[in-house]
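Why show two proteins at once? Because comparison is the fastest way to build intuition. When a single record is shown, students tend to memorize it. When two are placed side by side, the eye starts asking what differs. So, the first record is below.
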Amino acid sequence: MLDFEHESEGLVVSKSTISTFELFEMFPDQETARGYLEGRLWPQGARCPVCGLGERITERKGGFYRCNQCKEDFTVRTGTIFERSHVPLHKWVYAMYLLVTARKGISSLQLSKEIGITQKSAWFVLHRLREACGPDLEKLRGIIEIDETYIGGLEQNKHVSKKRNAGRGSVGKTAVLGMRERGGRIIAKPVTRSDKGTIQTTIIRQVEAGSTINTDEAGAYDGLSMLAFKHETVNHKAGEFVRDDVTTNGIESVFAVLKRGLIGVSSRKPEASWPLC
């Protein structure tokens, strides 16, 4: 399992290990969680989220602060993902932990049972945390593994009036293009079509010129070497999955975890769509 840190605009995940028991010891109640979050948000002492100053701050009871410059009252929740929420801060911390360590994902229904809040509140917490991960607008660079997959319900599980009756495989599903920066970030984007023009336009927008792109031999990737990329392929049809440093196993593993995660967050109430972190 992973240790994690919280920042006002997102989550930072590190590679060290922490157990659930250790987490409970660190944050047994709301006050310990508040102290931790204040230390992360204000390492040099409390600062007003309205005027940005920290020289004329008066500390009050219950985690409240008063800015004597702009006369505003605030807490560690003000201007963060915790704002306008009555969920105790130590439950927020535990929700962060569950979100980043649940390999197969976690539904709002499961989270509500884990931390003792309503399903509606759990949905709100998960939505805020997923939004906090946010899109990284910086392009991927270096060695990029790229592949596509299809996401969606099985035709056999649909009502007869909604079945397309057009065969198996991608029928009734959404095409998703996955791009994995070797040792770095991941971008997965739904695409309207999986043709060459759509796929390569998406790659150009998301991958920095000069990067090395690893794909399979699908026709949609033909010509990438002529678009300021170094293009390497593996021939899956011939049973080739790794050749020296050329492989798409990384992005395929991402898709495997993603699909298991979609199963893990399934519940009687649908979840909102969310970005990969």
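Second record. Ask yourself what differs from the first in the token line.
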Amino acid sequence: MNNSELRAKVIETVAFYTDLGNETFKTNMATPNIDFSLKGRVGGKYSPREHMVKVNMILLAENAEDYLESTIPHEVAHGFQRHIYGQYQHGRRIMPHGYEWKRIMLTLGKNPKRTHSYDVSNATQRTVAREFAYRCHCKTHMFTIIRHRRAQKSQAGYRCKRCGHSLSYVGNKMAVATVA
């Protein structure tokens, strides 16, 4: 199937499980919106604030049948969980994969498993830029922007786990490449 056929199938499947849930639970939850821009290793995601099912197109394309049969109902069940039980029940926070969600999955005739087992080697992953070089006696350590900012604010500073000496800022990746 091409991308437009896959998208149409997702829309159809979300509508099917929404209708099935509304009929089964005697409720009137609106069909969730659908976003096809989820990236990384996550199979799918339900966003209660937007009442939206987020779909990972790479994993969908590689696992279409299983994705439509397990991931889509998994995410729609999160919508019903929020619609039926809210965020709190009897003074306790409803857990995303707790008793209520499992009950909904079983009632929809689905296995209440939390995680997928898709091959994620082709899924895009977020890369963390390590652009800031710090030096000790034994090697150069590359820091992310967050760690660099913490090191700049901190009075104590960071120490090397190998040699135990304080790390001192050398410069960003570009400066290190021209110096080294």
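One difference worth noting in the second protein: Residues 176-180 have pLDDT under 50 and may be disordered.
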